[in-house]
Amino acid sequence: MENKQQIKSFNQGHFKVFDSKTMPEAYKEDEAFAHFALTDALITAAGANKQPILHFWQTPPLVILGMMDTKIGHFDQALNVFDQSKHDYIIRNSGGLAVVSDPGVLNISLIYPSGEERLSIDAGYEFMLDFIRKTFYPKFPKEIKAYEITNSYCFGDYDLSIDGRKIAGISQRRIKDGVAIMVYISINGDQNKRAEMLKQFYELGLDGSEPVGRYPAIQPEVMTTLEEAYETTLQVDEVKNVMLRHFTWSEGAYDETLDEDYQEALAKMHRRNRRVFGEDFV
């Protein structure tokens, strides 16, 4: 049975909000890596200060690879797909498989400090599911369900879908004294193009030696955007404003301690990517 700490609402407490649009200019100079390094620094800050945090971020066109993606047989050749599509690519500091990020995709983290009883993995997923459902319902009276959408990219048990088509995926990152429940949501843009790009990546990269079922056989039609699902025009800033109504919050500050943790996490991100792509990779 889950303890009381684990069954509280996702929005308990006063949240500090961090948004990529207002992060320091020095961080933006290393933007492809900055959001992941900052996530780790914010998890540490949440634990140290017993402070829940909400983190929003977007990127230019970017493919976010998982370490498992680097294990496909023709990985180097398959990267050409991203070059041809004018997408940068990096390897993130958490598990899973490739996803696509661009200005039409909103990435969100709910970050909680860990108390004596750490938030369970299942409770973390349910927090995010409840948060996303309450953001859009009842204004948009379509049910958001959570189950694996076969043939989507980065498939998992907590794929979020409307009418059987995936609009978001949830993951978690847990480090000392804190946990981040992270979701990407395709708000607008060309979701078919995003999925086609990753479909080509796997079709070119897989050589048949990989474990059966580990990598997706992507069918772009099983994915969509919120704009398509709701048959309306929807902007990312509009979604963020609706989300913030669920919280008591104030803007977070980039203090010296946070910056030190960020710089340490950023260095780890660079080392991880250079081990795969070479020392000249930036």
What brief labels describe this structure?
single chain; 282 residues; globular; BirA Bifunctional Protein, domain 2; eight-stranded mixed beta sheet; alpha/beta; three-stranded mixed beta sheet; 9 helices
Characterise this structure.
The chain is globular, with a radius of gyration of 18 Å. The protein has nine helices and eleven strands. β9 and β10 form a beta hairpin. α2 packs across α9. It has 282 residues and is of the alpha/beta class. The protein has one domain: BirA Bifunctional Protein, domain 2. The strands form two sheets. An eight-stranded mixed sheet has the order 7-8-9-10-6-2-1-11. It has a three-stranded mixed sheet with strand order 4-3-5. It starts with 13 loop residues before the first strand and ends in a 5-residue tail after the last helix.
